[in-house]
Design goal:
This protein is an alpha+beta fold. The chain is built from 5 helices and 8 strands.
């Protein structure tokens, strides 16, 4: 370590701090919402790797009560609240979202989500994609997955 630090003209103490920050940057952290799905299926609500936060597909279930609305707009809002909670646990926020994927069983209903999506992501305007595909539970009308890049303080 001293050999490299001397070639770079960096003090040993500063070099150790750089190495420590690099190690913390590479650390992988798992975020859980304590939803029963996570344990049953074997996944995490979100994974933090360095400054990146990968939030799993998230549905409109209110995980505290395990209830879900019949209304697509309400499910969309609950998805985004669940995602915001996972991002907050990861030291991030919706403002850091760089990519979003929407999955709806009925793609023709996507426009019904737009007012809620604009409210939560309109200022951020992440790269986005909408897929029409079946979801695990027929009550689910939308699932949202995001990737965020935590901003340096």
């Amino acid at each position: 370590m001293e050999h490299v630090s001397s070639k770079l003209n960096i003090s040993t103490g500063r070099w150790q701090r750089v190495c420590s920050k690099l190690a913390a940057h590479m650390k992988r952290s798992l975020i859980s919402s304590d939803c029963t799905f996570e344990a049953e299926i074997g996944y995490s609500r979100a994974v933090v790797q360095g400054d990146w936060v990968f939030v799993s597909g998230t549905t409109g279930f209110d995980y505290s009560t395990m209830t879900i609305s019949d209304d697509l707009a309400e499910q969309t809002e609950q998805c985004l609240k669940n995602i915001a909670s996972a991002l907050a646990q990861a030291g991030s926020s919706l403002a850091d979202v760089v990519r979003v994927t929407y999955v709806l069983p009925d793609g023709s209903q996507f426009k019904d989500c737009w007012p809620v999506l604009r409210q939560y992501l309109g200022a951020v305007r992440p790269a986005a994609m909408m897929i029409s595909a079946g979801l695990a539970d027929p009550r689910m009308k939308i699932e949202i997955e995001v990737t965020a890049l935590r901003q340096m303080a």
